Amino acid sequence: MKVVALVSGGKDSCFAMMRCIDYGHQIVALANLIPLDDSVDELDSYMYQTAGHQIIVSYAECMGLLLFRRRIHGSTREQSVNYRMTPGDEVEDMYALLHEVKRQIPSVNAVSSGAIASDYQRMRVESVCSRLGLVSLAFLWKQDQITLLEEMIRRGIVAVTVKVAAIGLNPSEHLGRELKDLKLHLLKLNEKYGIHVCGEGGEYETLTLDCPLFHKARIFIDKYKGILDNPNSTIASVGVLHPLSFHLEQKDASYSTSHLPAVFEVEGNPTFTQASSSKPLDSEFDPDKGEQAVNFRISSTGKNLLSVGCWIQNSSKTSNGLQEDLAAVLRQIELRLGAEGFGWVNVLYIHLYISDMKQFALANEVYVKYITSAECHFGVPSRSTIELPLVKCGLGGGYVEVLVAREPEKKKVLHVQSISCWAPSCIGPYSQATQYKGVLYMAGQLGLDPPTMNLCVGGPTAELEQALQNSEAVAKCFNTSIFTSTFLFVIYCSARLTSSEKMQVREKLKSSFDSSDSPAFLYVLASDLPKGASVEVKPVIYAPEVEEETEELEVGKLRMPLENIFGKLQIDKTCYQLCNIKDKLLSCIVSITNTEASKICSQDDSAFDFQCGSKKHMTIIATFCASIVAKTLCENGFSWNDLVILRFYYPTSLLLSADLMDCVFSEAFLDLARDDESIKFGKEPLFNLVPVIGSGQSAHMDDLITCELLASKL
Fold first, then answer.
1. What does the pLDDT look like over 412-447, one tens digit per residue?
2. Nearest-CA neighbor of 137 among 173, 159, 111, 163?
3. What pLDDT does residue 280 have?
4. Short-list 309, 288, 399, CA closest to 354
5. Residue 311: strand pairing partners
6. Which residues contact 430 (CB under 8 A, 6 or more apart)?
7. Dihedral (Cα; 470, 474, 479, 480), 10-degree rounding
8. ∠ at Cα 396 (684, 593), nearest 5°?
9. For a tag on the chain, would you pick the N or C end, based on fewer CB atoms within 10 A?
10. Residues 392 and 652 sit within 8 Å (Cβ to Cβ)
11. How far is CA 554 from CA 219, 513, 698, in A?
C-alpha cells in the first residue's frame, strides 16, 4: 500500500515507518500536526506529541518526501475512548490534514502511526481513517516495549529525549540524552518503578535525529535550552528541550538542496464527514425486494440474554440471491429487535451463515448497511462467518443468529481496525471480542498472519496454531487466557480437509490444552470458510470482570454423571460434555451418533436408516433431544428463561428437508410443554436448526445430531 506517515518526530513514529517498509509498503508522504504558536513546545494533549516540533520540517529533506503540516486549532472536547466526530476537537485537525493529503495524492490508501499501547490514540486514528476510506497501520501496537526499545536502537534509530517526566528521570541529567545511552537506566527504572521503557505512560518523549530512512541527511542540534515545569516537585520534575538552532549534514553528495521536497501548509476549517458505511450497493439491489414472497422463520431464546435467529423457509430450494436474502433476513431481525425495544446496539455477537463464500464481499456490503458504528455506540458486535449448504436445504442465501443483551452499556468491546503485528484487524463494523457479564465471546479467528493479513503457510495445523496465537492475543487484552478459561471451543473445519488432516487438527488441539481441564470441543464441518481457510476457531471464555472471582476452570471435573441426566438410559460418556460454573453459567454439548441413535430408537420395530429420510426415527431423536435439554437445565438449577443459545446441528446427508426437521423439533418441544405445565414456550421456537456438512465432539464430525446449549444467570 501507499502510505502517508503520521510523524511527531518521536522514535515510535519513525520505527513504525520502518516496519511499514519491512512489510512491503511504500511511504509516499509525511504528515505532522504542530501548535498554533511556534514558541510553544508542548500542548496539553493526550493525542499529539509536539515537543521538538520546530525541527520536523527538516524530515522532508532528510527523507526526500513531501511533508504536509497543519497547526492544531482544536482542543480535547470528546474525552471518551470511543471517539465520535466532534467539531472543535483536535482530532478534526488530523482529519483535515489527511483529507488534504488524500486530495493531493489520490493513490494514498493507508496511514502509519506509532501507537504502542494507547487505545485513546489508536481509536482516534482509526476513526479518521474510516471516514477517509484509509487503512490504519499500527505495526507497534501491543508489542513488548523492551523488545521494541532494543530493536529501535539495534536498527539505527538515533533519538534524543526532548521531554522527561518520571521518577528517576532528572531533566538536568537526562534531557537531550541519546536513547542508546539511556537504555540501561530505563530498564532499571522499569524494574524498580514499573515505568514504560518506551515512554507510553508519558515518562519521556524523543526526537529522532537520524535513522535508516533518512537517506539524504541527518539532523544535528547545535543549541537548545531546557525548560523546567514544577522544578520543586518531590516526585518528578518535568523538563522540555527547546531547540534554538540546528543544522543538517548531507549523506548523499549528489543530493541538491535546490530541489528540496515541498512542505505543504494545510489550512482552513475541516470538512466534517461521517464514516462511510460501505461502497454503494448495486442500483438494482433493493433490500426490501422479495420480503413478501418468502416465509421467514424466527427463533428466540431466554429473557435476560437471548439469541434471535432468522432464516428463510423456501422449500423450492431457490434463492433471490445472497444479497437480497441476507438483507431481508437482517431487516426481519431489525424489526424483531425493535418490537422488543431493542436495536443493533443491544447485539453482542452475530453468527453469519451464507450460501456462497465467493460472495462474501457482497454479503459484507449488505451487512454494513444494517450494523454500523453509529448504530452500535457501545461497540460493534463480534462475528463469525461460515458457508453452509443453505439453498440446498431450502433456507435461502443467508441465515443469521444474533446474541442480544438487555443492558448494552455493560458490554466491553475490543475493536482494533489497525493492521498490526498483534492480531488480525477487523476493518469494519465487527469486533475481535465482546465481554458481557463474565463471558468473553470471541469472533471467529482464522490462521492469519496479522501484519500481512494472509493465511499462514503450512496447511491446516499451521493455520490452527496461528489462530490459537491470535485468539490468545485477544484474550490477554481482557486479562484472561484461552488455555485456562475457555469452557466451549468451537472449531469450524473446511469441507476440503482430508480425513488425515482432520485428525492432525484434533491432535494439535489436544496438545495445546491441558487434558485435565480442557474445554468442551465442538467440531463443525462447513462448506467453506473466509479467505479459503482450512480452520476457524471460536472460543467462549469465562472472564469475570471482578478480579477476586477469577479462578482456573476444571472443566473435566465439572462433568455431571450421566445417570443424573438420563436415568437408566445407557449412552456413551464421550457423547456428553457439561460445564457448570458456580451455578451461574451452564454449557453442554451432546452428540447423537449413529450408535446412540440406534439405542434411542431400539424400541421401534422398523429398521434404523436415516439415509432413507426416516421422519419416524427423527421424531424419536428430537423428543430425546428435547428431554436432554429439559433435564440438563433442571438438574443444574437453570430455568428455560436462563437459556441463551440452543442449536441443533444436522448433516445434509440425512436427506431430511429443513421444513421437516423444523416441524419435528418444534413438535418435540411442544410435547414437552404439554407434559409439564411449568414449561411455557412462546409462539417462536427457542432453538436454531443449523444444516452442516458434519458436526460432533470428535474431528470425525459424523454425528446425526449435535446439540449445543448455553444458559446463564449472570
1. 999 999 999 999 999 878 999 999 999 999 999 999
2. 111
3. 40
4. 399
5. 297
6. 350, 367, 371, 380, 381, 382, 383, 415, 443
7. -60
8. 70
9. C
10. yes
11. 59, 12, 20
